[in-house]
Amino acid sequence: MSPTHAQSPIPNPQSPVIGVFGSGQLGRMLALAAHPLGIRVHTFSPERDTPTGQVAAREICAAYDDRDAVRAFVRGVDAVTFEFENVPAHVAEIAAEEGKPVRPGGHVLHVAQNRLREKGFFADTGLPVTPFAPVHSLADLEKGLSAIGAPAVLKTAAFGYDGKGQVKIDDPSQAEDAWLEMNSQPAILEAFVPFEREVSVVAARGIDGGFAAFPLVENRHANHILDVTLAPAQVSPEVAAEAEQLTRRLMEALDVVGVLCVEFFLLPEVRLLSKVELLNPEGRLLINEIAPRPHNSGHWTIEGAVTSQFEQQARAVCGLPLGSAAQIRPAVMVNLLGDLWTQGQPNWEALLAYPTAKLHLYGKSAARPGRKMGHVTVTATTIDEALEIALAARKSLVGQ
Ligand code: AMP
User: Fold this and answer.
1) Is the minimum distance from the CB of 163 to ligand 1 under 6 angstroms?
2) Ligand 1 center to residue 163 CA distance, Å?
3) How far away, in angstroms, is 223 Cα from ligand 1 center?
4) Where in the chain is the domain with CATH 3.30.470.20?
5) Domain 3-112, second-level architecture
6) How far is the CA of 198 from the centre of ligand 1 (A)?
7) I need a labelling partner for 240 at 20 to 30 A (CA). Which of 56, 180, 282, 357 fits?
8) Alpha helices in the chain (DSSP H)
């Protein structure tokens, strides 16, 4: 697929409308950030009264497979984007047929939708990536395990997120059980990386090739779901520079116009194991995966940076100049998952009694365990102070 974004701003720059496919919290925060710039957001998804729809100028409820509905929606907007990557390819194709800029282009979605294509792209581009092998059968898995060794991680190639569709293999004898868990779906086998920490960069790229990266952040997970982001990551300037440079190379190679997040594994500094040294002899980072859109690890930018990741997305998608990605203050973001609703409504008054805790709720009515319902960001003089306040504020939601 060829890039589908035209190298020009949108045709109607006075009062642009962004059409976003998907209707979750990322679209909601895009719509909220776009509003002050005079940019409206229309949303398209199979659901009603969605997090995005509640704040968008227009909410269209139709199936992604309904090509007529997709075409009608696209005709009513000036530029098209996505707030999740698993949108069928024909959506971007229809938008391009209608002459609407698609940012990032369908070619970026195509790569990001499948872990094999994604990791193959990193390897072909010379970007440091976890050793991996394609798996389409038990025989492939056994072959992959003898090449990569155990421990390793087997993941479905498509439609996986937050650790879903993944199984760790500690010993080659577990191969058959692991393959059964894949349900005959194409999979990828990856070396298990003994990382020190997980870190990520969110960056934006404009139609003119302009590039602006937010600082590298550290992500802490609980049950494979992002729990806490610390911005900036407490790493050496060399590691921060390596991350930014890899992100830039990746976005240029993919010709991304829009916002993209790169998730990295930070390798231990002391390479006692030769195996770790071999993973990346030149640096300390391995790319785990990308998300071609704003990311949960960039939510802190709403309060903590000069321009938020959502405003950057609005600017990039409309072909406008990017804003400054400089950080204003150390920031910590904590997620609010549905688990906090187990005993009924969380105690919002208790949380809001923390004057620096900034609450973001996504407008989801059903709270299920593991579901992202909202987040809280705290900015402070130091990361430690921000972390302490953010954790205490979240804890207060279910205290007493
Ligand atoms: P993913 O869906 O690929 O981001 O994986 C979810 C989480 O599983 C990551 O954030 C890591 O904590 C862990 N993980 C995934 N792949 C690997 C790997 N190859 N080695 C070690 N940990 C991994």
Assistant:
1) yes
2) 7
3) 11
4) 197-398
5) 3-Layer(aba) Sandwich (3.40)
6) 9
7) 357
8) 25-34, 67-75, 89-97, 106-112, 115-124, 138-148, 175-181, 237-254, 274-279, 301-304, 309-317, 348-352, 383-396
